[in-house]
Design brief:
With about 325 residues, this protein is α/β, with parallel strands linked by helices. The protein has 13 helices and 13 strands. The chain starts with a strand and ends with a helix.
Length: about 325
């Protein structure tokens, strides 16, 4: 069974790639991922705020005035909450490259152009095979226009592309007025891959302590429907590779994403729930289905259920919407 695929020009043994998560903070875990069949690994993210903290630019803003409002003490992260610094992250990439043969994809998480983009060059020098830009941006300024928000993504991408020669992926949220138009703009700006989609983490309020608390919920298989839909729409219209993330838990989920047009599938919640060795189970399920249905390679699957050959995708989407309402029992 030929499971090989190409992602951002990287030839991978399969479409199974662990996404950025705390699991990759341990080199031994990365080695276990390779042993379990991971085709590449996306490293845990280095945050824009971490780089600012190193320059002591954010310390004043994180602490000033918080003694006046007890509720505010837990709103911003404490300095000690960041477990790694920039130099440690670079060293981590170097050590990973020395101990595994699979590609190592670094991850930068930010929301503005800033000085952190220049750090991408150091990540390349550390040996990373590619870089994923995780743009987590929740606009709260009501005066910002959609055009300004979209330009922020483009500015980040273009700044990083000028700093490195390795492939660059950009991880997006789905919240654009026209997702297809935004994907096309990023593709033309030089994105080597689009990772669809970033999950929007929504905090909760603790009524006992009157504090804002993080509330991270692992994904469920239902979450895959949104990236599945947009990958099927975008496949064949971009030069950039398409990576699916969120809600991918089984071999069947992987197969669906490949049929929609994904080059790779990013695994996170399923590995946090079931452990790294579950990569083997997912691959075995894929191979069993492919053998049963007489598929010999991933290339045969890829894009076979996309909208590439649909003459009017908008009408198709509308028809499916009406059909789903009419068939509900």
């Amino acid at each position: 069974m030929d499971l090989t695929t190409t992602y951002m020009g990287l030839r991978l043994r399969s479409p199974l790639v662990p996404a950025a998560s705390p699991l990759s903070e341990d080199i031994d875990n990365i080695k276990r991922m390779e042993d379990a069949g991971a085709a590449a690994v996306v490293m845990h993210s280095l945050f824009e705020e971490q780089l600012r903290l190193e320059r002591y630019e954010l310390h004043h803003h994180l602490t000033y005035g918080t003694e006046s409002f007890p509720e505010a003490l837990t709103y911003f992260p404490e300095l000690s909450n960041f477990r790694i610094d920039a130099e440690t992250y670079l060293d981590h990439i170097q050590r990973a490259k020395q101990q595994v043969k699979i590609p190592i994809i670094a991850s930068l998480n930010g929301a503005s152009v800033g000085g952190w983009t220049s750090y991408a060059g150091q990540i390349e020098q550390a040996g990373a095979d590619a870089l994923e830009l995780n743009v987590y941006y929740v606009p709260t300024d009501a005066s910002l226009t959609g055009t300004q928000i979209e330009q922020t993504y483009l500015d980040i991408l273009q700044a990083v592309k000028t700093a490195v020669t390795i492939p660059v992926a950009i991880k997006l949220s789905p919240y654009f007025t026209n997702m297809a138009y935004m994907a096309q703009r990023l593709d033309r700006a030089g994105a080597n891959a689009l990772v669809l989609f970033n999950r929007f983490y929504q905090p909760d309020i603790n009524l006992d302590t009157l504090t804002v608390e993080p509330n991270v919920l692992l994904s469920t298989p239902q979450a895959m429907r949104l990236p599945l839909r947009w990958i099927a729409i975008l496949y064949g219209h971009l030069n950039a590779s398409l990576a699916a993330t969120s809600g991918i838990h089984t071999g069947q989920d992987v197969l669906k994403m490949l049929m929609a047009g994904a080059s790779v599938t990013m695994l996170c919640s399923v590995l946090l729930r079931h452990g790294i060795r579950h990569i083997q189970t997912i691959e075995q399920d894929m191979c069993h289905w492919m053998e049963t249905h007489e598929y010999e390679s991933v290339q045969q699957l890829q894009g076979s259920m996309s909208q590439r050959h649909c003459p009017n995708p908008t009408a198709f989407e509308r028809a499916q919407y009406m059909r789903s309402l009419q068939t509900y029992q």
